[in-house]
Amino acid sequence: MDLTPYVEKLRAELAVAAEAGGAEARALAERLTAPLESAIRLTLLEALSAAADEITRDLAPGSVDVRLRGVNPGFVVHLPQAETEAAPAPAAPAPAWDESAGGAATSRINLRLPDDLKTRIEEAAGRERLSVNTWLVRAAAGALDAPAERRATAERGPDLGQRFTGWVR
């Protein structure tokens, strides 16, 4: 999806508004147009992402993802598996992420992953027929909701070479 027509329309609207203020306002509008373009694109991308999230909630268990190619967003739709198809049983149930339990508000984070890890995450999400975002949310929730004993062991690290058994005199 090319955002250029929308950015150009906003530029034109800014120019029309600046005309009412005279030459000085017109000059200011021209100077502000270039820096505002990235903010406009980001705002449009955030609106598209919010719309995709809303559609995903209605489409569940399917999903819609917004992906960037260069500066232009695109949509990837993952349709729910047909009821007649036999779905492969997951090895273990994914931890539930209940939006009604305080998760209704969402926040955006920037996550940088090594390419090989990103590929593995995309493959895992694909095997479970989930969007990468949903898969990451479930993985994070599962890690945080893990039993305290398992979490403490993970935080402490492996006890390699720290255990001794036997009799001492």
What's a concise summary of this model?
With 169 residues, the protein is mainly alpha-helical. The protein is built from 6 helices and 2 strands, in the order H-H-E-E-H-H-H-H. It has a two-stranded antiparallel ribbon.
Description:
The chain is mainly alpha-helical and 169 residues long. It has six helices and two strands. The protein has helices spanning 4-19, 23-59, 99-103, 115-127, 132-144, 148-156; strands at residues 63-69, 72-78. A two-stranded antiparallel ribbon has the order 1-2. A hairpin with a 2-residue loop joins strand 1 (63-69) and strand 2. The radius of gyration is 24 Å and the shape is elongated. It starts with a helix and ends in a 13-residue tail after the last helix.
How much of the residues is beta strand, in percent? 5-15%
User: What is the share of helical residues?
Assistant: 55-70%
Q: Which regions have little confidence, pLDDT < 50, spanning 5+ residues?
A: 83-87, 90-102
Which class of secondary structure composition applies to the elements? mainly alpha
Number of helices: 6
Q: Output mean pLDDT.
A: 75
Kindly report the spatial arrangement of strands forming the biggest sheet: 1-2
Number of strands: 2
Kindly, what is the distance between the CA atoms of the first and last residues, rounded to a whole number of angstroms?
A: 76 Å
**In one word, what is the shape?**
elongated
Order of helices and strands: HHEEHHHH
Q: The biggest beta sheet, please?
A: 2 strands, antiparallel
Gyration radius (Cα, Å) is: 24 Å
